[in-house]
Write the structure tokens for this entry.
Amino acid sequence: MSELLRVENVKVHYPIRSGFFNRVTDYVYAADGVSFSIEAGKTYGLIGESGSGKSTIGKAIVGLEPITSGHIYFQGVDMTDAKNRAHVNYNKDVQMIFQDSMSSLNPRKTVFDIIAEPLRNFSGLKEDGLAQEVRHLLDIVGLPAETMYQFPFQFSGGQRQRIGIARAVATKPKLIVADEPVSALDLSVQAQVLNYMKRIQKDYGIAFLFISHDLGVVRHMTENLAIMHAGRLVEIGSRDDIFNHAQHLYTKRLLAAIPEIDVPNRAKNRAHRKAIEQEFQDQKSAYYDADGRAFPLVAVSETHQVALPESMLEGEGF
Amino acid sequence: MSDAELLVAKNVSVSFKIHGQYVQAIEDVSLSVRPNEVVALVGESGSGKSTFATSIIGLHDLTLTQVTGQILVNQRDVLNLAPAEWTQVRGAEIGMIFQDPLAALNPLMKIGDQIKEALAVHDVYQEPQYNDRVIELLNQVGIPFPERVANEFPHQLSGGMRQRVVIALAIANKPKLIIADEPTTALDATIQAQILDLLQDIQAENGAGIILITHDLSVVAEVADRVAVMYAGQIVEEAEVGELFANPKHPYTRSLLRSNPSLDNESDELYVIQGTVPGLTHIDHHRDMFLDRTPWLPEDVRQEQDPKLAEITPGHWVRGNAWRVFKFADED
């Protein structure tokens, strides 16, 4: 148990302005009180539909999104205080892999410059050492060293995403936040990128926060999952907790919605999916409070937390 | 049976003019669709599945594209129709559901008016019926408060609701053949499930035949009756859905299934198909291009000339002979 990162009651609210004086009339609650913690070297999946706030949380962690309130602790130090950030090398230790590899790589820079930039910032290596290190990083993600002086547009989508991975690994970070890193890729390419990420995660003992809407990919990549809905977490648990013992109705609905390669049972699966959807529509009010927000998370086992009111937990426990 | 077929495409080839030369994008594709049937076309991007669908509904720019072969829609040859004749076929006999609903809808027109426009092109419904038909359609695709939505613009709707409107447009004139090109790719899992259910309900009501184009094998397993797998512009395998997933034969089909993360959740490494999909100008249509990505197979297997689709068991077609000896590199 060595806690690397703790997100505590983080809220990100965007103001909605309207009217003649352009005054703030309301807020969008992109993230509305999110808490979880990440242990060193472990993998976490953050799952939700578009608009659930999962990317907002990812950006808040790496510091790309100013948070409205709450705290993010990295190795016990509060990162929401800018003074502390530089002090503990937070920007070196936490890296991000983005969804769109084309827009996250500078089109005017060569692969060498792209990967060397974080090294120049943090490693203190000089030119010879830099070239050697970049070659080594390209090797890790399976790209030949000759590609070093090419530009991003000269690569396929899968190769570009691997450049993004090499850049993220360059500073030897302790945590990588990957926001939908494979959702733009074809199946055969996706498998390759996932394999590289998994291998690097294991070899270097990096903690991973994998943000995705694709439960199949997340199930493959991560041991711990968090389900997010409308800016709040509704369930946190191990792979087994979520896939075999889901308790929140929203989690069940999300699981039922994943199409499965199971042709003989597809009529049964479809009926099950429709039944869960109906249940969700009918009983939604019981699972959310009067404002439509998910309840606070309650621990039901050592690894498993569910956003349910006390009354619903009884009789349903383990 | 054959006289009831909604679509018969025979030996369809499509070439695009690139830098003054014609480059063949799809080669000798044959496919038929019967009423009440969902036929899935599966393949990675660049495999030619959308190109094929575009030629069925006649949306290629013929100054830059050559389409040869035979395409019969309700026994009518549509390959050589004049533009005015096409207007009668599109919408009335073939409906098309596009991937990106925001691009498929006119942003400046109210939903109801867009549907009325589609109705006005054909004489299936007459003017006084239009308003009722709009509400009926919006109801059918599961849009709540159809009277209100009919007066709204596309940007006021969510992605799932927009896709429902696109489906309503496609079925407005009750076409018997519906082409759905990646209808759920842009949608979240729960919305995707609802849209797939909706497609199946519509099919059951109208007795329509659906061509479902997708790269997602699990979507295929959920809704298709028959599956054609495409690679580099050719169909490499075709079978009933149960048969295809139980007994996949072609190396490409087997590789795709093996690299799917949702099937293979416990093992550490996902199967990776070596290499990449070949570019249009690098395709040799006299060979099975996928075998370039299985270099461990013997040379004579990979270089087989003019591999043909053959029926190996009733209804199950596989191209070439490589499947008979195919093994994964790590198999004994």
